[in-house]
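Exercise 7. Predict the joint structure of the components listed below.
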Amino acid sequence: MKPQSFYITTPIYYVNDLPHLGHAYTTVACDAMARYKRMRGYDVYFLTGTDEHGQKIERKATAEGFTPQAYVDKVAASFADLWKLLDISNDRFIRTTDADHVAVVQKVFEQLYAKGDIYKGSYEGWYCTPDEAFFPETQLVDGKCPDCGREVEWTQEEAYFFRLSKYAQPLLEHIKAHPEFIQPVSRRNEMIKFIEGGLDDLCVSRTTFSWGVPVTFAPGHVAYVWIDALTNYITAAGYLDDPEKFARYWPADVHVMGKEIVRFHSVIWPALLMSLGLPLPGQVFGHGWWTVEGEKMSKSRGNVIKPEEYAAEFGVDAVRYFMLREVPFGQDGDFSRMNFIYRVNADLANDLGNLLSRATAMINKFTDGRVPTPQPLDEQVEADRLLPTLADEVMDRAADAFDKLAFQDGLAEVFRLVGAANKYIDDVAPWSLAKTDEGRVRLSTVLYNIAETVRVSAVLLAPVITTGCRELWRQLGLDISPLEAGWEAARWGGLEPGTEVRRGDPVYPRYDAKAEAQRRAAAQAVTAAPSASPELAPAPAAAPADVAPPSEEQITIDDFAKVDLRVATVVEAEPVKGSEKLMKIQVDLGWERRQIVAGIAKHYSPADLVGKQIVVVANLKPAKLRGEVSNGMLLAASTTGEPMVLATLTPDKPISNGSKVK
Ligand code: MSP
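Solution:
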């Protein structure tokens, strides 16, 4: 039997800019998914590429002194190079200038025209060249483009239109009948509202520029953005030239993209496919956007994050891991160098790397460098059953999460296992077992469990940490990569007793977070200091303008100890009716569930909070806010400026609810 197929795509990226963190995010996420599915035995087809036509690109090329073709060749190569560097395993890199794609675009135009879904009309309106979009007068802001604020030009031209309006009803029916079609749910709801508002026909050809695919039946017309771009997904699946491949991979299982282009993929694309009589993709997934230290990432702000620079400094695994672990896929996230270092240190260096070196060091010391044979199950003590049981549970839960593109949850699961293994070492203290004969019998089980946890974790993390997973295995004495071994290799018990471990360098080095924080503070002080002259002594550090001044009153440790701070998980959240600010949350404190009312509704949606671990003051006298009992207080940091920034405090790795914070 042929393995089941799985077809996944990224958007094709515009070549008007060099690749950055945002592009890398989608591509790494799709790569992790593709690798995970391959590990599970699927016949995966993973597509990415570049979107190379249009007036904007034509103008950019001219401005830089290139022909359009030479210009797109150059930028497309920088995308392809970055994907190579980031260990992206795409099966094809499609370019809209590829000959087979040009043929598909022309064919699709002819088919839609023959069907009566494309007609000739005239287009006029205010046109923003950088955005390649027309805007009605009413949408302009101060006479300029509502999206980018730049000048717009009045443009009128003969154009072909696609009867998008005809497909509003069938689209709504499809979306309603297939809840999984648009994900996450918030985007699905937005799309339903948008379509219910009615759809206008879509301009699909242009005559004012020539850098595009010529429409065969209309001299002077070239295909205009979306037909040219969206059809890449069927070109690569073999629409015109490979019926067998097309039958195998089409419809795509999931198109992944940033939230801003979900509309094109869940409205225009399915309408085009309906018109062509082709089945619709299984899912359109819109992930969130990255900001950088709270600001939009842009060239003009000079804050564009270049993944290759981070990869050179911290390694490819760190970049891939951070992006997928830091933020729930689907929600917006904020990138900061400091958080990057904290995350990579905490998870990869401290938790995972450390577990491996503890395992190999102890095996070297106590069992001659060979993985010991664990005791028979019925002779093991209860505590030694913990890791095997947890590992099986984590394997299933990580799979469930990855299947839903919930990378953050999947990775958090694996680190729950890694954390449990480190705690197991601390609790059991294997070195003390080595002191007695009886202890040494148990020691072989304990050491086996620790090494096996590393082996299992490396498999479960392999779709993301594609280099380190191999090194983790290598140091355990295994010579293939977990990526080749496949997902089932994560089943407990796969490590053969007697395997010779190889102690090696730390797989993930630890970075100096303190030095980084000091550098940052110094840099901030320099920017904040009023034009200091070099001969003056440096001004004493002042609090930044947007934070409250430090407290003058000192407290004793006993004062602090009165506050019972605990970790809790938010299990439910809903805004308090009639209040803009208040959110009612139910939290699990480990020993009980309770309700807390917090002033965070302007900063978090219920979906942002549910499942999150927070820190609460557990011994605060209950109070009533807007008629709702609040039994505790949630800790959050906030600035004083407008708009106020507010961030809840979260432990940097999962920990038991009720854990004390001090
Ligand atoms: N060419 C179109 C897509 C056509 S698909 C048939 C396009 N290209 S783009 O170069 O602008 O790429 C947009 C994509 O880049 C987003 O959908 C997202 O995948 C990624 N990102 C760009 N900036 C981003 C962030 N700041 N954060 C997260 N991802 C973002 O649109």
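Discussion. The radius of gyration is 28 Å.
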